[in-house]
Amino acid sequence: MPESVQKLILGHNQFFGISHLSSERAIARERQFSDVGNIVRLVRYAQERWDAGLMMSTHTRANGVAEAIRNDSRLAKDLRLHVLLPYMAKYVRLSNARGLVGMVSDILGQTTWAERFGLGLKAGMGVVKGDPLAKIRALIDIEMLPFKGLRLETVFLHNALTDLIAGFGMVDILVFFCDYVRDRYQATPGFCTLSFEIVVEKLTASGITDAAVMAPFNPVGYQMNPSRERCERAAGMVSNPIVAMSPLAAGHVSPGSAAQYLGGLQRIGSVVVGASSETHIDESFGGFQTAFEDR
After folding, report:
1. In the chain, how long is the greatest CA-to-CA distance?
2. Which of 26, 64, 90, 191 is a good FRET partner for 15, with 20 to 30 A between their CA atoms?
3. Running DSSP on this structure, what letter comes out for residue 249?
4. Domain count, the chain
């Protein structure tokens, strides 16, 4: 497993019709990327031109994207994948529409009978043995099914769960997640967070120094809790690989300003940034590559 995370990572929000800047832009992106072929062409460009990886959540569209990547011999071999799980909105939407039982049935309906049996056995044995972690293992495995056979580099826990777990001080769950991702998927474990200072404190106290931490870093302090200054200070005190997300602050910061800012934070060596065209990729990745060239 790598000691550091890939420097340049293409984000996934634009592929799922998500824009923090405007609803009109979100609608346009939803229309553009409803064709999986448009996603794959952009991913291929980022990988071939910039040796970029791909951040991918377990959104329902991820199945089609993953299958298209598997069918592209070059991408299947060279593209490094960074998975963010679970896709929280999916569970909220399904549970509201179908109830908890219906939600589980819908999710398992995407698996083969063999996979379904194995997952059910794993969860069932957890109930018999009184092992709650067995159920968590089964849920992780369900989320990871779309990415079978692809080149995994990092598996991140969603910030909603990371921050909840850290807030309650359940450090044993953080340790468990790291161990399971390493052993089961031979990937680097990671934690996405909107509470960077608190999470890295918990990781350090637990002796987790090699798990990646993905958090907002940008020159205007957007989503940097409790403050930009405290996040920057915490970043200088940990040895964990740090991945900067939201570097453009939802469109309020230029790629050049973002690259200059991250270039001044020596402990940050990776960035994930969304782009909806080849031009956007070049504008963003060129500056970030220069900022990270000596790291």
Report:
1. 56
2. 191
3. G
4. 1
CATH value at residue 88: 3.20.20.100
Structure tokens at 70: 């598997």
With a pLDDT cut of 90, the percent of the chain lying above it is 64
Instruction: For residue 175, tell me if it sits in a domain.
Output: yes
Q: Are 5 and 154 in contact (CB under 8 A)?
A: yes
Tell me if 104 sits within 8 A of 95, measured CB to CB: no
Residue 1 lies in a domain: no
Q: Quick one: DSSP state of residue 19?
A: -
Q: Is 128 exposed, middle or buried (0-12, 13-18, 19+ CB in 10 A)?
A: exposed
pTM over 0.90: no
Strand 152-157 and strand 268-273: the pairing is: unpaired
2: in domain: no
**Alpha-carbon distance 81 to 246, whole Å?**
19
pLDDT, tens digit, 9 for 90 and up, residues 262-281: 999 999 999 999 998 999 99
